[in-house]
Structures are given as C-alpha cells and as structure tokens.
Amino acid sequence: MNLELSEEQAAARRLAKDFVDGEIAPNVVAWDRAEDVDRSIVKKLGEVGFLGLTIDEAYGGSGGDHLTYCLVTEELGRGDSSVRGIVSVSLGLVAKTIQTYGSEEQKRQWLPRLTAGEALGCFGLTEPGTGSDAGNLVTKAVRDGDDYVINGSKMFITNGTWADVVLLFARSTDAPGHKGVSAFLVPTDTPGLTRRTIHGKLGLRGQATAELALEDVRVPASALLGREGKGFSIAMSALAKGRMSVAAGCVGIAQAALDAAVGYAGEREQFGKPIASYQLVQELLSDIAVDVDAARLLTWRVADLIDRGEEFATAASKAKLFASEAAVRCANNALQVFGGYGYIDEYPVGKLLRDARVMTLYEGTSQIQKLIIGRALTGVSAF
Ligand SMILES: Cc1cc2nc3c(=O)[nH]c(=O)nc-3n(C[C@H](O)[C@H](O)[C@H](O)COP(=O)(O)OP(=O)(O)OC[C@H]3O[C@@H](n4cnc5c(N)ncnc54)[C@H](O)[C@@H]3O)c2cc1C
C-alpha cells in the first residue's frame, strides 16, 4: 500500500479542509447549543460533491475511490461529527447500498437527488427491542397484491426527521431470524409513517436522530431492494463499509483533539512556563498523537482493501473498534490538557468527548466488533 496521496486525493482533502473551516467550524458551538445543524449544509455538501463520493457519475455522483471518501470523512469528523454523520448515513449507508443492490429504476429514482443533497436518506435497522441483535427485528412487511403493508417501529435513526427515504429493514417471510428480513426503500411522506425527534443526547446534538413509527405503511412491491429474504445480508454489507466511515470520522475527532491540545498546551502558562514544557503534559499529547496515527492507518487499510476488491469486513471491524475507542481516549486526554477550561463549551474538547462517546456504540458496539473479529480468528460464531 502506497501511503503517499495522489494529486486528486490531496486536492479532495484540501477541499474538505476548506469546506470545514469555512462552512462548519464557525457554526459548531451554536449548532450544538441549539441541538440543530442548519439544514442548508446538506445542499452545500451536495454541491461540493461530498454526498456523491464513490457513486457513479452516471447517477450524479462524483466518483472517486474509498481513500478519498475517508479523507473527506475525516475532515468532516474533525469539523463536526453531526455533519459527518449526515454524509456517512445518507451516502455511506443508503446511496451506496442503492448503487450496489438497487434496480436501474431505483438508482434513477434516488441516486441523483441523494448525491445532489436534494434528498437525504436514513437507515432503519435498529428497533426498540433489537439493537445488537438486529437479525431478530420484528417490524413486519406483509404482501398484499402488488404492495407490501409495513407495521412496526425503528429507534435511534440518524437523519430520521430530515430524510426523504428510509432504507428500511422488515420481516417479510416466515423464515426464522435474519433469514426472514428484507430491505425496502420507503419514501418518508408515505401515509402511516410518523417520526419523532429524540432529544437530550449526550453528543451529536445537532444531528436529527429519530424514532420512526409505521402503521399500515403501504409501498409497491417495486420498493423491495434486492431479493426478498436478503435484507439482513444487505444491512451487514452496508454496515461493514459504514464502519470504515465511522472510523474515519473518529480519526477526525482524534486529530481535532490533538490540534486543540497542542495549541492550548503551548499557550497556557502555569508555574511561569507553558504547560507544554511539562513531561506529564507531553505524555498526554504523545498518547493522543500515537492513537491518531494508528487509527488513521487502520482506516486507510480498509479503504485500500475495498479499492483493490479484497475482503475487508474484519479489517473494517478492527478499524472501527480501535478508532472509536481511540477517539474517546484522545478527546478525554485533550480535556485533561485543557484543565477546567476543557469542561465548558467555549472550548472544543468537551464536545469532542461527547460526540466521540457514541462511536463505540453505533454501527455495532465495541463488544460486537470483538465478536466479529473473534469469529474471523476462530471460525466459531458467538451470535
Ligand atoms: C446517536 C445514535 C444514532 C444511531 N443511528 C442509527 C441509525 O441511523 N440506524 C440504525 O439502525 N441504528 C442507529 N443507532 C442504533 C445503534 O446502532 C444501536 O444503539 C447499537 O447497535 C446498540 O444497540 P442497543 O442500543 O440496542 O444496545 P444493546 O444491543 O441492547 O446492547 C447493550 C450492551 O450489551 C452489549 N451486548 C449486546 N449483545 C452482546 C453480545 N452478544 N455479547 C457481548 N455484549 C453484548 C452491547 O455491546 C452493549 O454494551 C444509533 C444509535 C445512537 C445512540
């Protein structure tokens, strides 16, 4: 693997850095306090091409490889995880899955709007009673003539109240466990689908996280994505790539923690000297720096494997596990460098810690990543 970026990759990273510094950084504190990102950011993300990365140009995408996607995602994560999550879900979990599994009609219907930022997608897998055990979800889709009628509920859905389409997973056959699950593309204005914003989150406060309720939601059979009964494997393949995106976002959080901590340590004086001159503070900084490099390299390896068409799922679990735990450590260490000032939201590190905390939970908790890695090592599944 060549770690030197191509000219195109370096240019995409600069573009993302400028976008974050110009469009995101000035608003981060206000959005966090208001628990609401300014929705106009979606259109801007589309215009700059970030919602179409790795999507074919024929469907309005901006193409590019997965390392470019990671570079942009890392920058967005450095700026604001709430914005990074909009892209990771609408592009990473929804648009890419439509590109891989969708019919020509489904691709034409959704991809140009999703990549342009004219529509947003959300990923509806988790339910109130099934999180890690998603294969046992209970939302039901019953065939009725040329339609399916869907009943059930979904929990913790990122972009939920903003989205125009839900990639929804529901049980549509009598086959047991994950074998009975199918994937559907459900427009959010379909009668019977209601959404409620979840407030009071520890972090990602600007992000629209929602609970979805489905009561006799009728969709045509053409809303089925991929083959009936293949929904769970579609979800797992989407999440495997999604874990790379979460890992890249975590590298962004860790890098932001490093930048803030190094800057502050150079300016803040105690006992007549900058605190950066004290070895115990340097230990905190060097611990963060090593975590940043290790998390980034694990993440880039996943992108390299995907771009070369190699098996990548276990590497993605390793990257997601390490990078998410590292992001929490790095933000926590940075907060220590800031002392009491780190504890108030005029300084960036408290938000980094709050935003980092969810990364070890969603798209498979750290425990679930360990079980996936353990299964790959032993051939024995704990699920
Ligand atoms: C802010 C936010 C955004 C989210 N966005 C989305 C989204 O867009 N779409 C979506 O579908 N979901 C989303 N989720 C849901 C997320 O993926 C789940 O929260 C996650 O999968 C964990 O499920 P759970 O919360 O039900 O925890 P549980 O599965 O109940 O787990 C609780 C604890 O038990 C542990 N555990 C469970 N099973 C095992 C086991 N077999 N062995 C060892 N330990 C185990 C877990 O690791 C965890 O520590 C989001 C969640 C949050 C908080």
Automatic annotation (TrEMBL):
Keyword Transit peptide: no
Domain of life: Bacteria
Required co-factors: FAD
Keyword Transport on entry: no
Residue ranges constituting the Acyl-CoA dehydrogenase/oxidase N-terminal domain according to the UniProt record: 6-118
Any one Pfam family match given in the protein's UniProt record, by short name: Acyl-CoA_dh_1
All residue ranges annotated as the Acyl-CoA oxidase/dehydrogenase middle domain in the record: 122-217
Keywords recorded for this protein, A-Z: FAD, Flavoprotein, Oxidoreductase
Domain Acyl-CoA dehydrogenase/oxidase C-terminal: from-to ranges: 229-377
Gene3D superfamilies, A to Z: Acyl-CoA dehydrogenase/oxidase, N-terminal domain (1.10.540.10), Butyryl-CoA Dehydrogenase, subunit A, domain 2 (2.40.110.10), Butyryl-CoA Dehydrogenase, subunit A, domain 3 (1.20.140.10)
Family matches, as PANTHER family: ACYL-COA DEHYDROGENASE, ISOVALERYL-COA DEHYDROGENASE, MITOCHONDRIAL-RELATED
Recorded family membership: Belongs to the acyl-CoA dehydrogenase family.
Name of the molecule in the record: Acyl-CoA dehydrogenase family protein
Species of origin: Streptomyces beihaiensis
Organism lineage: Bacteria, Bacillati, Actinomycetota, Actinomycetes, Kitasatosporales
